[in-house]
Amino acid sequence: MIFVERETRLNKHLWVLGGSVCVGLGILGILLPILPTTPFLLLAAYCYARGSDRFYNWLVNRSRFGGYIRNYREGRGIPLNQKLLAIALLWLTIGVAIGFVVTTWWLKALLLLVAVGVTIHVSKIKTWSQESPNLADQANSKESVEVS
Q: Which tens digits make up the pLDDT trace of 102-121?
C-alpha cells in the first residue's frame, strides 16, 4: 500500500513538473516566434489537471493566461487585439532575425515560411468579441417582446 501511495504522489509531482515546464515554454513562446504558445499552455492545463487542482486553478482562473486558455478551449477564439499583437510581434522578431541575425539564405527562407504559416494559422482562428452571445439573444428577445 505504501508503495502505491508513493507512486501516486510521484506521478502527481511529475504531472506538475511537466505542467510547469510547459508554462515556461509557453512564456518563452511569447518572446520567440518559432515556439508556439497556445499548445504549451493547453498542455500545461492538462498536466496540472492531472497533477494538482491548486496549480490547475491558478493557471486557468488566476494567471494572465487563464482567459486565453478558457476562450481557446471553449471555442470562442482569440480577441482581435491579441491576434493583431501576435502577428505584429511575430513579423517584428522574424524581420529582425532575417535582417540582422541570420546569414544563410535557406534559413531566412525557412523563417519567412514559418512567419507566413503562423500568420495564416492565427488569422484562421475564430475572432472572439467581448459581447456575449447570450446577452445579444436576451436583447433580441426583449426587443421582440416590446414590439408585440
A: 999 999 999 999 889 889 98
- Distance between CA atoms of 143 and 54, rounded to whole angstroms? 44
- The 3-state secondary structure of 80-100 reads HHHHHHHHHHHHHHHHHHHHH
Q: Averaged over 36-53, what is the pLDDT? A: 89
Q: pTM of the full predicted structure? A: 0.61
Distances (CA, A) of 31 to 25, 41, 86, 90, 109: 10, 14, 10, 9, 20
| 51 membership: H or E segment, kind and range | helix 38-51
Q: Are 29 and 36 in contact (CB under 8 A)?
A: yes
Contact 98, 126 (CB under 8 A): no
Task: Indicate the length of the chain as a whole number.
Answer: 148
Strands (E), 1-134: 78-79, 127-128
